[in-house]
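[job 0412] stage=complex_fold ligand=copper (II) ion status=START
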Amino acid sequence: MYTRANQRNLTRAQKRRFVDAVLALKRSGRYDEFVRMHGQFYVTDAEDRARAAHMTPSFFPWHRRYLLEFERALQQIDPGVSVPYWDWTVDNSPTSSLWAEDFMGGTGRLGDRQVMTGPFAHTNGNWRINSRITDGKFLTRDLGRPRDPVALPTKEDVARALADPVYDTAPWDSTAPRGFRNTIEGWNGGAEARWLNHNRVHRWVGGLMMGATSPNDPVFWLHHAFVDLLWARWQAAHPESGYLPAKPLPSSDPAAGQVFAADQPLPPWDVKPSALLDHSRYYRYV
Ligand code: CU
Ligand code: CU
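[job 0412] stage=complex_fold status=DONE, emitting structure tokens
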């Protein structure tokens, strides 16, 4: 049992230990394996195959296990490290300490959006992008997208999602018209920006955080730790509500075979969503 802390409360020494463990994982090649795994599971609902990670009810449990695996890998390097979380409803500006030189580094420069500051700047020698869709060996960001501004989700946006007592609903994809999962994951926005919570954060960071290989940007883990915390808050707020679908969908359902019910094992770990509902077996949020 260990804790995951709000990144804004980390000491300088804690930030350095986290960064050092991430850099060591990168040197070993294992970091890029995590990036590739995310790319491999970036299946959209335009494809007629199983979706474990995105546009799907198992968005929360899949990423919970994915973060746990990453955290275990970090802890093999430094047992005192855990993944901090980024509460983007509070630390919602490019001037937040999150983006300082001693932690994530800052936004990208004009033109090629290359991150030039901090431990993950390519020019500092430790962070080469090896697995991505397009060319380029450097991390890119465009925090807040100044030329076409996008705002991070607010406390009110999150509160609206947390108030929905239904976990997820048919058609169990990016078009689900309500439900906590899609409200947080953030598809189906249309004109209603309030829907776009998790996705809007990827967009606000910009650069490599936008695509299937978004874990190339280490802030991915801090973002998803907060998403994981929001799931825990939703569970605490709705003790009578559970993961849906509870039972495998009937074969007549168009989503049958594409989404995972509570007891249908998720790839690549073969773990049921129902086995991932209680995070307090592993860590707690402080
Ligand atoms: Cu993901
Ligand atoms: Cu994400």
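The pocket of copper (II) ion (ligand 2) is lined by residues 198, 202, 224 (CB under 6 Å).
[job 0412] exit 0
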